[in-house]
Amino acid sequence: MAKEVKALTKAQLIGEISEKLAITKKDVNNFFDALTDIAYKETKKKGEFTMPGFGKLVKVARKARTGRNPATGETIKIKAKTVVKFRVAKACKDAIIPAK
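Predicted structure:
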């Protein structure tokens, strides 16, 4: 059975970046807070936010559709709505899962 691997917490990520760049944890935390704020505002205003080499947040309008209640099997109507998706950049995919 494979051992469960836990993702880095925000504090651990901040600590790693702080060590690697030799800057304070407070500065790294402020950078992440600013980046998050900019990403949210740009996605809301322009419909997308790109982080080169990593990916982009994209605001997408979903059409209304019919679905099925899994508990009862009853057909239901699902309203149209706007959702946010993250699209991974090709460079990121290639770095994590190299092409064969």
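Summary: Residues 25-46 form the longest helix (22 residues).
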